[in-house]
Each structure stands twice: as C-alpha cells, then as structure tokens.
Amino acid sequence: xxxxxxxxxxxxxxxxxxxxxxxxxxxxxxxxxxxxxxxxxxxxxxxxxxxxxxxxxxxxxxxxxxxxxxxxxxxxxxxxxxxxxxxxxxxxxxxxxxxxxxxxxxxxxxxxxxxxxxxxxxxxxxxxxxxxxxxxxxxxxxxxxxxxxxxxxxxxxxxxxxxxxxxxxxxxxxxxxxxxxxxxxxxxx
Length: 189
Description:
Elements (H helix, E strand, L loop, with lengths): L8 E9 L10 E10 L2 E9 L8 H7 L3 H4 L5 H12 L3 E4 L2 H14 L9 E4 H8 L8 H7 L10 H22 L8 E2 L1
Parallel strand pairs: 1-4, 4-5
Antiparallel strand pairs: 1-2, 2-3, 5-6
Helix pairs in contact: 5-7, 6-7
C-alpha cells in the first residue's frame, strides 16, 4: 500500500437494512458506494435491493424505505455481484465497517459465494474513536457535527456515504497533523 492515502482508490460504502442483525435473517435493502482517489470522485453506486422480506418497524423508522419502494428493485443475486465489481481493486471504507461487512458477507453466504477478503478496510468509526477520544458519542451525525461537516444525515445509504466521505477526509487531515501512519488507521480482511 502506498504511504500516501490520497494515491489509493477507496470505495466508501454503506448499507440500509431490514433490521440490525444479519445473523437472525435481516437483509440489505439499499447499498451505496462512492469510489474516490484523494478528493476526486471516480464512480457512484446506489441501488435498492428487494430482500424478499419485510423491513422491521424500527428500520423503517430510521431509513423510511417502504415495501413499495422495493417491489421493483432487483434481487441481491443481481446487485451484490455488481457491487463487488464496483469495489474491485480498491480499499473499502465504511462508518462502522463491522456492521456493513457483516451484512455484505451474509448476502454473499446466501448466494453461496465466499466472503469478501484480501481487502484493506478503513473503519471511520474506529478512526474517530482513535483520533477524537474525548467525544461524548460517536454516531456519524455527531462526529460530522464536531468536525464541522455541513451535510445532514438522512439515513439513506448514498447520503450516509457522502457524510462518511466528508468525515473521513477531515480525519485524514488529523492523521497527517499527528503524524499517524496509514497502517495505524486501517486493517486487512
């Protein structure tokens, strides 16, 4: 991996789901990504997914994705492979990567495909906790507010990707200012 984070392609992604636990049957209903290099946007991915099950009332209260919105959406068998093509050759980045990766890997398991691996992961939540250790909370919107990001969180995948990118960009500056090496803010799966 290059020493300069702005020399690598990164796919920032987010999921919206039917609930909070992939292991109990919850599924992805929206998957979005933004592929960047430095501050340059290279490509965008934004798809609704028909999971073949209902969205929990709790999830609907957050993301406002209705069954009607998903009726004509494509299935995971179509969208997930397209997303894997979208992120191919890049590092990945997410706010609370463990959550999003658990859902992505669950969808891959249901498709009888291997889990994502051999990727560098930037978890922006972990970065925020490391670089901003005295915050009272670490919700994406709260960290964004603390960093003076002007985007409002909408709890839709692409909007959250945009906010994550802005927060990630500000945290990269803090890393540079503190002399923190790239390998200290990412991990490999």
